[in-house]
Amino acid sequence: MLLAVSSLGMALCSVIGEALIIETGRRQSNDQVTRTISTFCAFRKITFAGMSYLSSVLIMMMPKQQLFLMCSLIPLIVVVSAFFIVEDYTHPQLSIKEQWTKLVNFVGKPEIKKPSTFLFISMLVPSAGTALFYFMTEELHFDPELFGRFAAIQAFASLIGVYCYAYIFRDCSIRKLFVWTTLLVSMCCMLSIVLVERWNLKLGIPDTAFVITDSSLLQLVGEINSLPIFIMATRLCPPGIESSMYSFLWTAQFLGLDVSTYLSSLLTYAFGISANHFGGLVHLIVFCAIAHIIPIFYVHLLPDTIPKTMEDDETETQPCLQDAPFEGRGTPTFDSDAAEQGREM
Q1: Averaged pLDDT score across all residues of the chain
Q2: Host domain of residue 168
Q3: Is residue 166 exposed (0-12), middle (13-18) or buried (19+ Cβ within 10 Å)?
Q4: Assigned domain for 261 exists
Q5: Full DSSP string of 240-293
Q6: Is residue 175 part of a domain?
Q7: Is the pTM here over 0.85, yes or no?
Q8: pLDDT for the residue 339
């Protein structure tokens, strides 16, 4: 119950912050929006990196009750600081009924349903992450401090991915970028076989160094994979329902992630993997790596480019989401690859 309340509070704070980013982006060009979102993600990744490592160290140094008490001070600071925020109301306030009607009408447009459907499908892919976690704890005997170090390094890898997109890939086709990063993620997932089979030791690579390299590469590519969807969502949201519209798009993704968790559990059982037996782990990794390619066949649901202008009540979505030519629509064929979501291993 306490975890549910805590998650609800974090979700509300996150939605408010993201709505403010969307509102800011309404007055900016695509390049400015990309920089704004990159800065927002950068601060979030840096904070996550610091807190992940700090919590993993503190949990070995003090009782859990004291750690929870210390962590509760941060939300308290947020509550106090909220009273000092000065809000600038730039739009007339809508009633709940008006917001609901506006949201339903906008969600009903094909240009919104297609990206939402794609977000759901992209997160349906099963993952071997949980099985690998138990392999690392039961077989490799990794301790909490090491996992905290992994999380911190992965966060910095995500930060690099954010800036790679912002300064290198921001003008690329969304569809082609997703295809190539997806293929690369699939190949990176295969690298976990090296760890499970212990080939890395034969190559003289320690387990920790290999896991850090593998997981960091996945995080970096996954961030490049997912950031265009974030920016596109910013451009799709109409005025007045920024947080609701953005939440709807990401709800589709998180719903897919929940289904993926159940699929992953069923596959883990089907391959005979348990806390003491990892004989089928290699087969599970191969299956999940191949399954990562499935969303490519639905990439035509995404617009080829990010809309140049924000949506409003009078503007139709079709012009700004006009499909661009793309080879192999529906069943893509390419000349020559998020994950989470960014999805780990």
Answers
A1: 76
A2: 14-80+105-321
A3: buried
A4: yes
A5: T-HHHHHHHHHHHHHHHHHHHHHHHHHHHHHTT--SS--TTHHHHHHHHHHHTT
A6: yes
A7: no
A8: 38
